[in-house]
Design goal:
The chain is mainly beta. It is 8% helix and 45% strand.
């Protein structure tokens, strides 16, 4: 998803999900976390430019792949679990598939920029491309 919001003179891309390297010594999903990018920005400090992202962490559910789908499951972002990271920590784009709950959600009420707020958990789509398959297998 790539909805765009305009905020006081600059454009902020929101709702992109990415894998962030949290342990470079571990391969696959045990060395990565899935996050939602809320904003990309840069700043200059002492003549050096720093490109950053404001992210919200998803929580991985369990330490094994889902037995039915073979995909990892993550739970929704906690809005209080926000961080600022350097964009070099971003490894690859991530695609999430909502896990549809037993309760009814009106499809007309799900706007692209709100979809991560409507569902409680998501499959990490390992079939999005061959890189995602390698990352999550």
């Amino acid at each position: 998803m790539h909805p765009v919001t305009h905020v006081v003179g600059f454009t902020v891309c929101i709702n992109d999900c990415v894998y962030v390297v949290t342990d470079p010594h571990v391969e696959g999903m045990f060395g990565l976390d899935v996050t939602q990018v809320l904003c990309f920005f840069s700043f200059n400090y002492l003549g050096m430019d720093y490109s950053c992202a404001i992210i919200c962490w998803f929580d991985r559910v369990g330490d094994v792949l889902d037995a039915d789908t073979g995909m990892w499951i993550v739970s929704a972002c906690n809005p209080e679990n926000i961080a600022i990271i350097h964009i070099d920590a971003i490894y690859h784009a991530a695609q999430l598939i909502p896990i549809y709950a037993a309760h009814h959600i009106d499809p007309g009420s799900v706007k692209p920029h709100e979809s991560y707020n409507k569902y409680q958990s998501f499959y990490v789509n390992k079939f999005a491309d061959h890189h995602a398959f390698e990352i999550t297998s």
